[in-house]
């Protein structure tokens, strides 16, 4: 009496077979396109004073408000069912096949990349149990300490980097970062390792040093040719477009007239003033003022809107916002890890005495790499060598440790734009540049810049005991609680 | 016996008119009012094959063979006492009057598989409601009209307007997450009750509309009667889907008569919105005690009533014009219009014993209270019954529906919701200043800071959604009498619809990407097929009458849908799928089947003791091949006490009944067993993802097994005091084990939902039906009926790895509808302020706000107690029916009141407006704490109250004056000129008054979805009072 039932219960529109490379491409896209308006612009970008808004709801980073919506939860909620589960599914599919060792290793590196973004924003997170719903029926994953997450990610990166084998097949074009290039992935793994180890300088300098030295010895991304970036397509499906451009242009900058910005967003006064004060040529690559419905990149008219406004200023239209023809082009490449960042971190490692070399030249290498790389946003953004040299001439590397740190990390604050999540992490670790918080009535942080995002309220309902344990360990689920590596 | 002959006569249905016969004719009238009795049966005693029935004027003709010498006629009619008339020799005309039967013992009801049974033989509770109860004060959705009529039936009409769906739950929610609604069956065969595109969701936006369900498409005028099978025993023969009870609909059939009978029914009603809001009108639009001084500020403060004391002086509003700073109290009435519904049904019936038919066409035209929203339904219904030969009979039904809806209202979150702004706009702003909602370029005019709170006029004037449903229901049955007491019957039925929805979020909508709009299309076809074959045998074994039945059923269901979605119209205002910047097409196919065999045995000992037993085995395609079958039995007995023993004289009738039944079921959705992978449309590399089911990441579970639902039931049915008082009392316990539950799980598992088998849910309760015939005189009568049902639900245990089952979340995750072990189904959970042991509020000294406690239960979403009370009076040709109904013991979390508090509309927000609000409490250390919130910060203080969900939970109990019908039967003497047999006219009114409620600013019945998410209110269409006229004419 159940003849043909098994066949009937197969969905004709889906495949029972996984193609790991197709799933891996999706995992790469999804790790990068996670809540690019709410987390990148409103939360992280506001907190580090790159962006500002006069409205309440998007004011999470701008004025430390959270009145309604899901903005502080978005990154967490989106990450697990998409990028985490996808990369985990790829790993499950390839891990036991020696012929697919490179697919396995690159997926492990990408998993570490995926998780470090989540833990840097939230602290303790489900890690070892995460994405195990189908394989092990784990419906209520426990929260791992950020320390253990970091140590495991470092171990994963090391193992994956050493297991890469140039003689075996790889993802080829399905890898949207490097086209499956095993040598470059090795550099990516060590670069991410360096990023993670430097993150631990405040909390555990000794471990940080050990891993930083391993990373540097392994070989990191220092040249333009190794830049880890994703190429996007302007015309086509949304998933193929630059997710930051898509999110910001679909939201704040949708009307493209400088006046009807959906969430009241502009560049922050802090950011634009810094660029102007330093006569930074990148200002004209990224910022515009709308004049007569046209974008004007003239440096002198650029100005940022102050953070913490509660009402639309009458001169709202005169403030700077991102250039939709350069950094917000729909096909603008997205930088995942840059040689600029690695040069700066090398400079820091040398300053700390953990590596040998000339810190000043790495510092200047970081600046010039960042400026050269503006060319990826098109000719309108490209910066001439003359301008780079002029800037370098006025930005020499200072002598004292504190001044050196301030210079390196203020430069990173500019150079890593628009990877606001990474800028936010780096700022929390180093405190540079020194930012003055706003203190608006009703803010949730007692007038301090947020130190993390908030676990989704739904976790309390669905994964209560584990969440409770994490909160009792880490501190209240608020914007002000500091995560493990962000020691006071 | 006479009764046996009666049965035979009904079965033969053959008229003899032979040569060599004596023609006898006559008229049969009612003893009560002398009106002709149509369709009464007349036959010769001892020779039931010689018989006929009366025509439309109560007349009959019979040819009696010459060989019969002494003629005794037996005349009978349901509802009257049978009479025998002895004709004198050569008498050829006769007139008989029949008395209405007082001893209404022979009460026949329709039970499972459409079998008519004597009510006293039933071991379970069945309630039957006649079709006429639904036609006079009609609701556009039939199921809504069940409200208050039947004990144990909880019918919830939704705030989604005409053409929307309904939610009916019988004896409580037995399943934790499955569809708790009953199976709808027409003439013994199931129909589809799905809602195309799914039910609206809490946080949904855009076209978050209720697209109507299957039962809504049944025309009340086509209904002869509705039986509600509440217990498992009654439902066992319908299989798994009957676990939640069955609503059996019997449609009207053709009648044997001379000529064609024509019946016309027309109803015209108007709907007036009811405004439940009671906002504060002392302080007007503004913030920090200040009114807006510029247009930009008025837009920023569009939904803030935190301004200065209203003074009537001019101020600048969001439209840039000056208006007096005065209260605007009629925004609800000013925005909505008077709605109307016009329905017309005409039916024709006629035929002979060999072939009879009934055909009807109906048209319902609704103009919603929401501007530019309309709904039209046309239904054509044809029913044919034929006696093809002495042994073969046939029945067939065909129904065709054409339903068109234009601009169904959406609910849930603010974007695209035309109801939202009407409630939330600042209290000195007239909603009409928004009209028409767009500027010269066609762009939506923003009235407030966020683009997500849509301009209501823009939504009603520019948003568009249109849908068309073509539905066909066909049924065909053949019955073959192999022997006098053995027959075989085959039925096939198909319920098929094709549905086409187009939703346009237009160019200029400010919340959409580049304000360039969005497109949503659904093309859906749904087919529900059933074929059934049964063999019936009955015989007498000494004093025991036995009836045995064996059968099999095949059910198949297929849904095939294509979703076409896209964003950003390239050419503005050109609304085609071809004109989109991004566009996706997504096919969805669902196929499932259930095969079953079943049997039943009924024993009847001298009409005193009855026993039924049945068993069914199902195989489900949606379960793994190892776990896909279940066998479930049922037994029941009933004992007619009043016939078995001597009872006190005031007891006319008493029956005891008891039954035990099981029903088993599979997963409602196919493809939930194994993980699969889908391709993602890409302009670059091919992309694959884990398959999403209905837009969610559903974790597949290959080890699911069938659930069972077991019902114990016992009852007493009596008629007392000369049948003046009827008492029907039932106790039941319904236990669901291994329930297949779809539950939200932590997204960190990689998935958002999964199906699991879960523990045990108990529903126990009592149902009481009291019927009274209080006054009964020649001209005046007063009948009353009172029903009461109490259902206690308890989730006994959940399963390992699942702490709680989350059924729904509100906007902002302010509250949840959950199911926790040890608690009733559907509790509302949320947050409260932390207090110390003395009840003082604990304040966080750094923020100055009360400390928010952990999540906890703050209410119960489902009403345990439901009741209905109806009174009908007749005086001569007048009749008056009044129906009250009520529900008690549930709570509603009001999303609207959260917003109203945040925006300063609620009366409670008046505290502190003049000199600031003084807060007193304690700190976390127990020290006393006091703080004055200055007027400038008052908004932020009240805004923060959203974190304490219990402040917005209201007792959802109510008593409503549901329905009044005042009717007048136009006496026949005034109608003769037009060959009209009868005509009646009635004044009808529905949802007139709320006599009792505890909710503030909203109607307690404000659910906006027929899903399991009961317990939330969120800006649905306002409730309306309906008044109208109904006219029924028979030719």
Task: Tell me briefly what this model is.
The complex is a heterodimer of chains A (about 500) and B (about 1050). By secondary structure, chain A is mostly helical. Chain A has helices at about 5-10, 20-30, 35-45, 75-95, 100-120, 135, 145-165, 180-200, 205-220, 245-250, 270-275, 280-285, 340-350, 360-370, 385-395, 400-415, 420-430, 455-460, 465-475; strands spanning about 50-55, 125, 145, 230, 265, 285-290, 295, 320, 335.
Characteristic key phrases:
heterodimer, A: 488 residues, mainly alpha, Serine Threonine Protein Phosphatase 5, Tetratricopeptide repeat, two-stranded antiparallel sheet, 6% strand, B: 1035 residues, mainly beta, 22-stranded antiparallel β-barrel, five-stranded mixed β-sheet, 10 helices, 54 strands, globular, disordered N terminus
SSE blueprint and pairings:
The complex is a heterodimer of chains A (488) and B (1035).
Chain A: H1 5-8, H2 20-32, H3 36-47, E1 51-53, H4 74-94, H5 101-122, E2 125-126, H6 133-136, E3 143-144, H7 146-163, H8 182-199, H9 205-218, E4 228-230, H10 243-250, E5 265-267, H11 269-277, H12 282-286, E6 287-291, E7 294-296, E8 321-322, E9 334-337, H13 339-351, H14 359-372, H15 385-394, H16 401-415, H17 420-430, H18 457-462, H19 464-474
Antiparallel strand pairs in A: 1-5, 2-3, 4-9, 6-7, 6-8
Helix pairs in contact in A: 2-4, 2-5, 3-10, 3-17, 4-5, 5-7, 5-8, 7-8, 8-9, 13-14, 13-16, 14-15, 14-16, 16-17
Chain B: H1 2-12, E1 21-30, E2 41-44, E3 47-53, E4 59-65, E5 72-76, E6 83-86, E7 93-98, E8 108-110, E9 116-118, E10 126-130, H2 132-135, E11 153-157, E12 166-170, E13 183-186, E14 189-190, E15 223-229, H3 232-235, E16 246-251, E17 257-273, H4 295-300, E18 314-316, E19 322-324, H5 331-335, E20 339-351, E21 355-367, E22 374-387, E23 392-406, H6 420-424, H7 456-462, E24 464-483, E25 486-505, E26 518-541, E27 544-569, E28 580-605, E29 609-620, E30 629-640, H8 641-644, E31 651-665, E32 677-680, E33 687-690, E34 698-699, E35 707-720, E36 725-744, E37 753-776, E38 780-797, E39 804-809, E40 816-820, E41 827-830, E42 842-844, E43 849-850, E44 856-860, E45 865-875, E46 878-888, E47 891-894, H9 895-902, E48 917-923, E49 928-933, H10 938-944, E50 953-955, E51 958-970, E52 982-997, E53 1016-1017, E54 1024-1034
Parallel strand pairs in B: 1-7, 13-16, 34-37, 42-48, 47-53
Antiparallel strand pairs in B: 1-4, 2-3, 2-5, 5-6, 8-9, 10-15, 11-12, 13-14, 15-16, 17-20, 17-54, 18-19, 20-21, 21-22, 22-23, 23-24, 24-25, 25-26, 26-27, 27-28, 28-29, 29-30, 30-31, 31-35, 32-33, 35-36, 36-37, 37-38, 38-45, 39-40, 40-41, 41-44, 42-43, 45-46, 46-51, 47-50, 48-49, 51-52, 52-54
